[in-house]
Automatic annotation (TrEMBL):
It comes from the Bacteria. Keywords: Repeat. SUPFAM superfamilies: NHL repeat, Thioredoxin-like. Pfam families: NHL (PF01436), Thioredoxin_8 (PF13905). Residues 1-146 form the Thioredoxin domain. PANTHER family: NHL REPEAT-CONTAINING PROTEIN 2 (PTHR46388). This is Redoxin domain-containing protein. The keyword Transmembrane does not apply. InterPro entries: 6-blade_b-propeller_TolB-like, NHL2_NHL_rpt_dom, NHL_repeat, Thioredoxin-like_fold, Thioredoxin-like_sf, Thioredoxin_domain.
Amino acid sequence: MEFRVRAPELKGRGWLNTGGKALTLADLRGKILILDFWTFCCINCLHVLDELRPLEERYGDALVVIGVHSPKFEHERDPVALAAAVERYGVHHPVVDDGDMHLWQQYAAKAWPTLAVVDPEGYLVASMAGEGHAEGLSRLIDELIVKHEASGTLHRGDGPYVPPPAPEGLLHFPGKVIELPGGNLLVSDSARHSVVELTADGETLVRRFGSGTRGEPFSEPQGLVKLPPAVAAIAGYDVVVADTVNHQLRGLNTETGEVTLIAGSGRPWRSTVDDRAHDALAADLSSPWDLAWFDDRVIIAMAGIHQLWWFDPIKRTVGVYAGTTVEALRDGPIPDVWMAQPSGLSAAGGRLWIADSETSALRYVEDGVMHTAVGQGLFDFGHVDGPAAEALFQHPLGVATLDDGSVLVADTYNGAVRRFDPASGAVSTVDSGLAEPSDVLVTADGTVIVVESAAHRLTRLAPGVVKTVSGERHKTERPPSHLAPGEVTLDVIFTPAPGQKLDSQFGSPVRLTVSASPAELLLEGEGATTDLSRRLVLNPAVPKGVLQVVAQAATCDADAEFGACHLTRQDWGVPVVIDPAGPNRLPLILRGMDQPG
């Protein structure tokens, strides 16, 4: 007997992109549904948005994608902030506001992003975590179309998406800003997919680089860096642009206006970490978010894989600078450190300062060692000034250095600019009430310019204004996994996508790496093995923590003469509470395509 699971009803606080209508499963009966559980801080979730776009175009009259926004940070619970994010990232499907995490729990999601597939009769037929599922989803949708057209249960036609009004104004969700030698400003106009030069006051458009259309040549560009003149003369361009959603770097010659592809194959990185130099144009990058000139190279904040990379404009090579791709906070000699979506860079005085957004941390590299100045981990955030050990940020995206050695931080989700003084070891608030500040620039004359991204403008700060804030401390309200103390079995459940099989031609096709924060949480079971099941021993003396689990599986196309190979990878930060009544098994789904029931 086949048991089928009914999909839980789509109940949320509100809806976007529906013209104000609240949708139900009954409204969507006859369509194939993909429910995309996301949160707008999450770079992997943004990757999935781009992976879903071709599917929405290909299967438009049979498929409906529903974004289920289940927030991590406190700022993401704000309906106004969610509406801005939906507009910022060009989300062209309905989105339900799951601010209380009700749908997250109903659909048993454990990671951002999670995808659930519902058939035209309202039954849950597949679920998967992480990114990289477009091909498997396409195969599954094809199967569902054949099945439900034959039974008469597929109803083709227009979906429920209602587009918002077209944006107006000079800028649209700008990302980063630098100063050009003549005093003009260069801004990544991210939601208009272009780079613009503005007059020094930030009010008048001088030039626009790029067509303004997604992908031609830019797609949501972010970071900018000016090359040293001697390097620029050899390279043939003077500015490097982080072309974030295209997973590439582009060179901009500000004299001629020519834009050149200089790094990135255009494919998102899904590989293994190595310490080699790679041909820049052949290398796969992953959401480069910001850039800085440091250590005689361009350093790239590779937000998509939680690393820093380097790019050499003369040798035209790239490689890993810091990070292992594990999403967490761990200091020490580079490259063997952990980061979490680095999104802002600034180099000065022998230090490379980093806004490490998902750990809400300010970090820096000096003499080959990574340090954390402010920040406590993936799930601790807030707006608190004072000693650095107690201070908190909330998802900062930008950083800039001042002449006195202190550091300004665009504390994005707190709507503030904060200042860290290394001499006193204290954090203060310079200004607040800003609309998602994403970058800070200190100009040659000492003026502080803030990119107020959600207000679509550049803002100058009044000099000398410093406020003290003792705000709230927060932890993410993502439901933790209650586990029994002592021996626990970790099972990562992997089923290849339709039409694929595990690929063992180069050894074991699977790999599992486990660690914990704090490290004392895990008495046994840390490390890497080639088995997707692991015996863990949890410390009963540590009441809670986070298990860091990284799993990957290599597959190839089955029954194909020249089948393509694929690497599926997922990184979980699993909040854990030690509970004597809890289970002694932790199941996680890698890729999934798992059939409920």
